[in-house]
Specification:
Blueprint lengths: L4 H23 L4 H10 L1 H6 L10 H27 L2 H24 L5 H16 L13 H26 L3 H11 L2 H10 L5 H5 L1 H24 L2 H8 L2 H12 L6 H20 L1
Helix pairs in contact: 1-2, 1-11, 1-12, 1-13, 2-9, 2-11, 4-7, 4-8, 5-6, 5-7, 5-12, 5-13, 6-14, 7-8, 7-11, 8-11, 11-12
Length: 283
């Protein structure tokens, strides 16, 4: 059965809302490494129930799962490090705004996905609007440059794992099989690092388990939707629409974390919306 593009991209926008929400949970305070580790570890119990009902990944999908697990580990490290030194409304837009262009380029080079001139314009507009949300006093590099550098590292890993997972889901017997096995296995590196850094004590983990469990459920739903969407729709379009979550993240930063969201950021959010519309119409 052919799925409606409106349904596919509507679900991707829902994933954007969910993604911004779990990032806010990590940024909100406390031990960010432990919270992030719990968020990712919490994927496993949800998907473990599905393992008996999905096929084993194909050899190519196994390679993608291994590569994605490695890149995701780098992503989580960079994300936690960035949130330790930067605001949600600064780090998140730079990280997510740089990813769509990388995925568009990778999709073209690896699987021959091409975008129309209108789609390319929407993609460029969307990325520019996303990154401009992070500007401070007209300069994204104003003040401490460390959050910006770490955010760009996050963006590189987002682009890498998005491409890997899009290809992996397409190579698997079913997209659900790829999603289940990835979520069941990817938590191990970060879980072990977090346990080691906290002296193999479970006390910090017990302190944040509720936030971690909630974040894990939200995170699994958000990225599961995105992987599935990339298996049935152009990867660059899916990733670009997902990154509209930065508008939501900026709003969360303003309402709940005391971060500014003045006229300039409102204008940037409008640019993001315009880019998303162009990308959708151009498709």
């Amino acid at each position: 059965m052919e799925l409606s593009p409106t349904l596919i991209y509507g679900l991707v926008l829902l994933a954007a809302l969910l993604h911004a929400s779990w990032n806010a949970m990590v940024k909100a305070g406390g031990d960010k490494l432990v919270v992030q580790a719990l968020v990712i570890f919490s994927h496993a119990p949800f998907v473990a129930l599905l393992i008996p009902f999905v096929p084993l990944p194909t050899p190519t999908a196994w390679l993608c799962i291994a590569a994605s697990t490695f890149v995701h580990s780098l992503y989580y490290w960079a994300l936690v490090s960035a949130y330790k030194v930067g605001d949600l409304s600064q780090v998140y837009p730079i990280a997510r705004g740089s990813a769509p262009l990388l995925v568009a380029l990778g999709g073209f080079l690896l699987v021959g996905e091409s975008l129309s001139p209108l789609e390319l314009g929407g993609l460029a507009l969307l990325s520019a609007g996303l990154i401009s949300l992070a500007w401070r006093k007209g300069d994204p590099l104003a003040g401490d440059k460390k959050p910006v550098i770490l955010a760009l590292c996050v963006g590189l890993t987002i682009g890498a794992y998005s491409l890997i997972d899009g290809l992996g889901a397409r190579s698997a017997e079913t997209a659900l099989s790829y999603i289940v096995w990835l979520f069941a296995l990817e938590h191990f590196p970060l879980t072990l690092v977090a346990l080691h850094r906290r002296g193999w004590s479970l006390v910090p983990f017990r302190r944040y388990w509720k936030r971690g469990l909630a974040g894990g459920f939200i995170s699994a739903a958000a990225y599961g939707i995105v992987i599935w969407a990339m298996s049935v729709a152009p990867m660059a379009q899916v990733v670009a629409l997902r990154e509209t979550s930065v508008v939501i993240a900026a709003g969360i930063g303003m309402l709940f974390l005391g971060e500014g969201f003045g006229p300039r950021r409102i204008a940037a959010a409008c640019v993001v919306a315009a880019g998303a519309v162009l990308l959708r119409v151009g498709g």
